[in-house]
UniProtKB/TrEMBL annotation:
<dbReference type="GO" id="GO:0008260">
    <property type="term" value="F:succinyl-CoA:3-oxo-acid CoA-transferase activity"/>
</dbReference>
<protein>
    <submittedName>
        <fullName>Succinyl-CoA:3-ketoacid-coenzyme A transferase subunit A</fullName>
        <ecNumber>2.8.3.5</ecNumber>
    </submittedName>
</protein>
<comment type="similarity">
    <text>Belongs to the 3-oxoacid CoA-transferase subunit A family.</text>
</comment>
<dbReference type="InterPro" id="IPR004163">
    <property type="entry name" value="CoA_transf_BS"/>
</dbReference>
<dbReference type="InterPro" id="IPR012792">
    <property type="entry name" value="3-oxoacid_CoA-transf_A"/>
</dbReference>
<dbReference type="InterPro" id="IPR037171">
    <property type="entry name" value="NagB/RpiA_transferase-like"/>
</dbReference>
<keyword id="KW-0808">Transferase</keyword>
<dbReference type="Pfam" id="PF01144">
    <property type="entry name" value="CoA_trans"/>
</dbReference>
<dbReference type="InterPro" id="IPR004165">
    <property type="entry name" value="CoA_trans_fam_I"/>
</dbReference>
Length: 234
């Protein structure tokens, strides 16, 4: 069964105000550029967005912030976005900062059907406020609840028509986790092949987690911070 769509906007027909969107990517690496733009075009408001960070002012999830479509961000890092800072300080944006490893495990647990887990990360800090703790082998651990979302938007390098995915190096980051933990997963890819053309051992994520596949014609892949070395003319 082919899950390929030619119009990515059609995959978001069920996205409604107030829903939770899980967005893959790390910085600007491996972000679902087309999915973000489709949500912006739809104009859905009051969203809770779960992502490692919120892009930059004019690219990535920053585009949804700019359009005031996000009410709450659950992230581990937010330092590169001035719009994010302004909306947080003004009270327009609710922010739930989560340690990066904890955020990854919350998503993994959500996709695996595990409702909660215990971790030492955050014990004795503000992160632990109003959360259950428990001692194991003389050590205190913090209980964290899993995260599940209504929609997952992810980016992969390659997919077959069933949705088996291959990610490109570090662009894998949070993408598989967001795909697993969402009720509806929309993946955009650079390369699309027929079923059987990806060797089973090369599949990073099974197509059982994927609902829609969009073959993107263009990806900007913007570099967040470009560091260059001066040429040595001596």
């Amino acid at each position: 069964m082919s899950k390929v769509i030619t119009d990515i906007n059609s995959a978001f027909a069920g996205l409604e105000d107030g829903m939770t969107v899980l967005a893959g990517g790390f910085g600007l690496c491996g972000i679902p550029e087309h999915g973000i733009e489709a949500i912006r075009a739809k104009g859905t408001k009051g969203l809770t967005v779960v992502s490692n960070n919120c892009g930059v002012d004019d690219f990535g999830l920053g585009r949804l912030l700019e359009n005031k479509q996000i009410d709450k961000m659950i992230s581990s890092y937010v330092g590169e976005n001035k719009i994010f800072e302004q909306q947080f300080i003004s009270g327009e944006l609710n922010v739930e900062l989560t340690p990066q490893g904890t955020l990854a495990e919350k998503l993994r647990a959500g996709g695996a059907g595990i409702p909660a887990f215990y971790t030492k990360t955050g014990v004795g800090t503000l992160i632990a406020e109003d959360k259950e703790t428990r001692d194991f082998d003389g050590e205190t651990y913090l209980m964290e609840r899993a995260i599940k979302g209504d929609f997952g938007i992810v980016k992969a390098q390659k997919a077959d028509t069933f949705g088996n995915l291959v990610f490109e190096k570090t662009a894998r980051n949070f993408n598989p986790l967001c795909a697993m933990a969402a009720k509806t997963t929309i993946v955009e890819v650079e390369e699309l092949v027929e079923v059987g053309e990806i060797a089973p051992d090369d599949v990073h994520l099974s197509g059982v987690y994927v609902d829609y596949i969009y073959h993107g014609a263009h990806f900007e892949k913007r570099i967040e911070k470009r560091t260059v070395k001066e040429a040595n003319h001596g």
